[in-house]
Every structure is written in C-alpha cells, then in structure tokens.
Design goal:
Largest sheet: 6 strands, mixed
Number of domains: 3
CATH superfamily of the largest domain: Phenylalanyl-trna Synthetase, Chain B, domain 3
Structural class: alpha+beta
Number of strands: 19
Shape: globular
Distance between the termini: 49 Å
Radius of gyration: 24 Å
Length: 383
C-alpha cells in the first residue's frame, strides 16, 4: 500500500518522521519497501501488508500499529453529519436478494450537493499516494477508502431508475458499462453479484461502479453505498470480467459488515464539508443480522511463558487498548472484545502474538548454542 507520512501523522498523538514510520512498521511486520518525496512537502512510502490484515490497507490502520508500538495514542477522525427530518428511506429503497454474498448493504442520501474541485488539502492527500483527483464527491469516497479501508460508491440519485437498489445475481447476457476513461461495455455471463436499479445493473458489487449512474457536474442528489461483500464472490466477479480495483482488493481480504457504518458516517461528514447539501435522516440497510462481538481472554502468565521475557501488565493493557480491544482486567486474566475489523484474531495465541509483535520480536531470547545428541545407526526401512 502506498502511504503518505503526513496523512498517517494526522491520527497520531505526536508526529513520527518518515524514517520512524518505516522502521516501526517494518519491525511489527509491515516492511517499508520504498520512500520518496512528493508534492506538498510530504513523503510517500510503499508498505507491504499481509493478506490476513485487510485492516491495515488504510492509513488509520497503519497509524494504529505505530501508536501501539511507540507509546502513542490514536486520534480518530472528526465526524459531523447532521441530518434533516426527511428520511433516506423516502428517497431510495434497498432490496437485498443475496444476503449470503452481501451480508450488509447500506444507502444514505444527500440532497443539494454542489459538484466541483476538492479542497487543496484533500487533493494533496490523494496525489501523494498516486491517486488522481476527480471532483469533491468522488474524491471523498477515495479518501475514506484509504483512510478506513472501507470501499464505498456514490450514485447520482436522478439516474437510478425506479428509485430502488437491488443486490442480486446478474442475468446471462445483461450488459454493464464500467466507469472510467475509455471503458467498454461488457456482457455478463450470469450469476455475478451486481447492484441494480429497477431495470439494469449499475455496479459490479465490490468491484466497479457503472458509468450510467456516475456523479457528473450536473449531479445534485447522491446515494452513498457502503456495504460488505463476500470475498470469494468479489474475486470471482473480478476474474470473470477482468476488472480489478482498490475496492475489490480490499473486499477480497475481508471487510466486516460491522465496520460499514462508521466509515459511511465519516464519508457523509466529508461530503457535507466539501460539497454542501443536506443529509437525509438515517440510512436504508438490508442484509443479515450483524454478528456478535467476539471476546477472547488472555492469560498473562501464559503470554510471559511463551514470550520468554518479562512484559509489564500495564504495557500489555496499553497495547491492547490502542489496538481497540477494550481490555477488561481481572487479576492476571485480560478479557478482550475483538474489533470486527480484526478478523484475524480468534484465539488467545493470536492476542499473545499481537503483544509480543508490538513490544518487539527482537526481545525474544535466543539460544546461542544448539544441543545435539548423536544416535547409533538406524535399521534400514524398505519403502
């Protein structure tokens, strides 16, 4: 993932230099592969992430890692999204016909936006990581994508036929025109998960938005899509259509349905700030019930036994707190509520790995000698 040093520092209680960010991320398992100055007195760095850490395909996720490893705290983005008395459900209807492949779909409506260039600060953040600014509304979706790791999409409400959004499988032979310069219409084979209006597919779910419902200079009312899609379904659609995107890259690594609303509210707040308008009340949601928060207990003595060196319990609690695990201490047992974004944490040993990794793997003691016990000749065994 390409990152901006200044962008990461927005979420840290005190700034970290480019060198410190690179060194810390490398030490905790996210190697920094390159670093280069970019416009705006910023530095862009290429950070490698593992396939099970989709939460770190975001500036906020990487900032959390740095904070936990360096005794800093996290400053979450400010969200200010006032609502009108008119509800979003009065403007758009959502029908989810495939909750297995789309566990959660939400739609929010903003009326009266004014499309134009994004403010300089927003353009600078996107340019620093190699993105091309488009307009204030589209740029806000891309900003939140790289801030939270939550993909989203914005439709021009006036172009959605029937004022309805349907999550369904594609019919064989249906045509879809992807958004993008020079994009050509494709014919769907059938079964691909699509977002449709009352008559046609308007997006490939989790992969690509459609040109026919895209935001233009004439757009005034928008529908904000924020959802969670099955990783396998997204991967299959991407391969069958030969289309990939920053969104599909993240969905393929897992976006938890419980994480959708926080990022969506941040997006509403940014659009109101940069494009104006009035946000309608609430959201229209469809899908499966949200899963319960998972709780995993950590035995401090077990952690120290596996680590092989001493770690103060206060330091253990601090790390777990910064990571968002809401630790509840009862003697030498720490119960943690696992944030939904951390789909990689399911067992006590996972928590032990987190603590040791962030305290520093270089503190794990090493034996400088290896004991060898010779044995006599062994009998031959025929295969």
């Amino acid at each position: 993932m390409r990152t901006s040093v200044k962008w990461i520092n927005e979420y840290l209680s005190s700034p970290a230099s480019a060198l410190e960010q690179a060194d810390v991320l490398t030490a905790v398992g996210f190697p920094c592969e390159s670093s280069e100055p970019v416009a705006g007195d910023d530095i862009a760095q290429e950070v490698e992430t593992t396939s099970n850490r989709g939460d770190c395909l975001s500036h906020l996720g990487l900032a959390r890692e740095i904070a936990a490893a360096t005794n800093r705290t996290i400053q979450l983005p400010r969200v200010n999204a006032p609502r009108s008395n008119e509800s979003s459900s009065s403007a758009i209807t959502v029908e989810n016909h495939d909750p297995l492949r789309c566990p959660r779909y939400t739609a929010r409506v903003i009326r009266g936006v004014k499309i134009g260039p994004s403010p300089a600060w927003l353009q600078q953040r996107l340019i620093a990581i190699g993105q091309i600014p488009r307009n204030n509304v589209v740029d806000c979706t891309n900003f939140v994508l790289f801030e939270y790791g939550q993909p989203s999409h914005v439709f021009d409400l006036a172009t959605l036929r029937g004022n309805v959004i349907k999550i369904r499988g594609a019919n064989a032979g249906e045509e879809f025109l992807p958004i993008g310069d020079g994009a050509k219409s494709i014919k769907l084979t059938g079964g691909e998960l699509v977002i449709a209006d009352g008559e046609r597919p308007v997006a490939l779910a989790g992969v690509k938005g459609g040109a026919l419902t895209a935001v233009t200079d004439k757009t005034t009312d928008v529908v904000i899509e924020a959802a969670s899609f099955d990783p396998v379904a997204v991967r299959r659609t991407g391969r069958s259509t030969r289309i990939s995107s920053d969104s599909s890259y993240r969905f393929e690594r897992g976006v938890h349905p419980s994480e959708v609303d926080e990022a969506a509210e941040r997006l509403v707040s940014l659009i109101l700030e940069t494009a104006g308008g009035t946000a309608l009340g609430g959201s229209v949601a469809a899908g499966s019930p949200l899963p319960a928060i998972n709780t995993v207990s950590l035995r401090v003595e077990r952690l120290l036994s596996i680590a092989g060196f001493d770690i103060a319990q206060s330091e253990i609690v601090r790390i777990l707190t910064v990571l968002g695990f809401a630790p509840n201490v009862a003697g030498k047992i720490i119960a943690c509520k696992i944030p939904p974004r951390r789909i990689d944490i399911t067992r006590e040993i996972d928590l032990i790995e987190e603590v040791v990794r962030l305290v520093g793997l270089d503190r794990v003691p090493m034996n400088d000698r290896v004991s060898i016990r010779p044995v006599g000749p062994q009998p031959a065994v025929d295969a």
